[in-house]
Amino acid sequence: MKFPLSVPGLTVFTFVALTACTDIEDEPFSTETRAGDGDGDGDGDGDGDGDGDGDGDGDGDGDGDGDGDGDGDGDGDGDGDGDGDGDGDGDGDGDGDGSFDCNNLPDPEIVSVPGAVASADVAFDAEGNLVGSDTTSILKTAYESDAVVFVPGIPGRAGLRYLPNGDLVMSQEEHRRVSLIKPDGSHSVLASNLDYPFGIAIDLQGLVYVANGSNLMRINAETEESETYSPDPGAGVRSLTFDLGYDGLFVGGESTEIYRIPIDQDGRAGAAVEWGSIPADNDGFALIDGLGVDACGNLYVADFGSAKLFRIPSDGGDGAVLIEWSLDDHGHGIQWGSGLGGWDSKSIFLPQPYRDNRVVEVRLGVPSKEMPFP
Q1: Do residues 347 and 362 touch, judged by C-beta distance below 8 A?
Q2: Which of 143, 162, 340, 341 is most buried as measured by Cβ atoms within 10 A of its Cβ?
Q3: Residue at 270 is within a domain
Q4: Does some domain include residue 81?
């Protein structure tokens, strides 16, 4: 079990220097400058704040930001990166690394996530909660806490992704529709009479892409307009994710091949081409339950057919086994932690529907590609 880092409490003492005074009877008030710098504060630096450093902020460190640490970033931790964690890497997590080596990624580490509930996918909201479905309701889980019901009585178990405005998009595959859930829990149907909507991806403009079995759909959540984006994306498309540059979509379904759909500058989809594959197993049966791309461009593939997690290198080709699960432990869906509220941004989180909808964390040591939402 993980425990969040704690910061010991600090008691700050302010010492005030007292100068001895002699009794001066009936001395009239004078505006005469005592230090000779012309600003009237008596410190001799000419800035009028009385601290003697000449920057005018009154903290005495001379950097002008007023926090007293001398680094000029205004956060008071002295490292100059402005994130307030004191490690100098600017990522706000306090570990001081701020980087990763794409040529030397660590072995994955599996960690249970007590309290969290999800069935086939997870999402993370802007308040630092993990969001998942138990197939009958949507639940939220704060880090190291028990899940609480967010939206009761909304069946579904597949794709979950947040939009830039804080709305949640959900695939309800058994009902052949995609729904929109507002932050207050109210919900409406975005698209209906679909084939078999499962995985969801959101582009940098907030458009919704849905793996819909026989095709790939694109939905504008603001106008509720939908279209067939790619009519032939590969065999039984079930999962999808954008590549590192958001100029292509990886799709996977009912085969061991992973396809890439190129996207031109106008947002139009090109023809799907085979980009990589996972080793054939279980008589060649595959059912891709999740796809995700890291900041190095590697593609991660969660396959139900073999009950394994694969990683395909950034230039495509054959995937290598990262984790071999039992069938009951197989992780569905792939989503990186948000870095908010304790959810590690260098780990992926996967539901285990055959383990009572528990959630497992796989520490990869590398963050996701750019994920602007939340």
Answers
A1: yes
A2: 162
A3: yes
A4: no
Q: Domain containing 234 — which CATH number?
A: 2.120.10.30
Q: What share of the chain is helix, strand, coil (3-state, %, to 5)?
A: 0, 30, 65
In whole angstroms, what is the distance from residue 250 CA to residue 247 CA? 10
Q: Mind listing the pLDDT tens digit for each residue in 86-101?
A: 444 444 444 444 689 9
Contact yes or no for 207/228 (Cβ under 8 A): no
- Tell me the residue range of the domain where 348 lies: 110-363
Beta carbons within 8 Å of 202's beta carbon, 6+ residues apart: 161, 162, 163, 169, 208, 209, 373
pTM: predicted TM-score of the whole model, two decimal places:
0.75
For the beta sheet containing 168-172, the strands, ordered from the edge strand earlier in sequence to the opposite edge, are: 160-162, 168-172, 177-181, 187-191
Q: Check pLDDT > 90 for residue 289.
A: yes
**The pLDDT value given to residue 374:** 74
> Per the structure, how many domains does the chain have?
1
pLDDT digits (tens, 9 = 90+) for 151-204: 999 999 899 999 999 999 999 999 999 999 999 999 999 999 999 999 999 999
Q: Does residue 91 form part of some domain?
A: no
Tokens of 250: 């990886």
